[in-house]
UniProtKB/TrEMBL annotation, chains A, B:
Residues 17-77 form the HTH tetR-type domain. Residues 40-59 bind DNA. The keyword GTP-binding does not apply. InterPro entries: Homeodomain-like_sf, HTH-type_TetR-like_transc_reg, HTH_TetR, Tet_transcr_reg_TetR-rel_C_sf, TetR_C_16. GO terms for molecular function: DNA-binding transcription factor activity; transcription cis-regulatory region binding. The keyword DNA-binding applies. It holds the Pfam family TetR_N. PROSITE patterns: HTH_TETR_2. This is AcrR family transcriptional regulator. Keywords: DNA-binding.
Amino acid sequence: MAEGAERRRPGRRPGLTDTRNEIIAAARKVFADKGFDKATIRGIAREAGVDPALVHHYFSTKEGIFVAALSLPADPSKVLPLILQGPREEVGERLVRFLLTLTADPAAREPVLALVRSATTNEQVVAMTREFLARAILDTVVETLGIPPIRMEAAFAQMFGVIMLRYVLRVEPIASVDVEELVELLAPTIQRYLGEP
Amino acid sequence: MAEGAERRRPGRRPGLTDTRNEIIAAARKVFADKGFDKATIRGIAREAGVDPALVHHYFSTKEGIFVAALSLPADPSKVLPLILQGPREEVGERLVRFLLTLTADPAAREPVLALVRSATTNEQVVAMTREFLARAILDTVVETLGIPPIRMEAAFAQMFGVIMLRYVLRVEPIASVDVEELVELLAPTIQRYLGEP
């Protein structure tokens, strides 16, 4: 990362890439210190020594900054509404296939696993992750589908556990089985949680 | 742990508690070095400088040593057969209630979470955990119930994810909801995986 190397002295005008990286470095610090809920675009801009409008320009939303700061493969607050659209009776299947296809790519999966690793060992990261999860994932699904939050959490737990067994513990056969077999096995579970209330 | 302090020079005869602790310290080292599958009671006895019969006397099985070495709250190879007995149509409910009641006690839960924490960050611990999981949990259930292994893994993933959300990430409402509400929500999922093939 060489974050230290990116830090410039106040007064020197950075290039565009420098500025973006500087905002990301500032965001990492602010999210770790304050968590997701209490972090603000204004506070991140202040930490980076730039105008808040510039932060908006690069990242649009606080979710967008968080996704960039942690190199997450997708912004759930943008992707989820697309997956939740379409026939309600197939929402389980769409969600399972999307998550397993996304995490099949190591480059997409690694930042997520890195976040899980640090969340299991660091209380600051736990708090930040919990708040982002609640705002960007759970609330979006709960509001869009009109289901009790606990049902979305059960669905999330199922998929989180599968991804941990498949890619971290790497237990067979779940580590090697193909995506479509897992879709067949798991979609009815997710559908039961997320289907009509 | 003060494992170093427990190590004695060859020749000095230890008390009974010393011997048991010495075997446990040796087992931790052997499991970490060799994993669960390749570790043997004989190898652990050699590492501890005691007779294999003594290891058998204290712990009966390799699973028993592993459980003691990691301070796990129960030996799955002993507990699972009891839970799997009884009406097949209620196996999901029995398993969910057992796991959530067991992990409700922080003293029982902490060693399990400690194992998860080190498994997410340490490849040796991953291998050891994967092998123990496969032998002492997955194989037992698969053989007793006669189901495809992937179904047991899906059930394990569901419960693992729930315990992580409830006790590590502590997302609400799943962190605070009572056990019976979770049994009602989750038992049909586990029943679907573990019920009649």
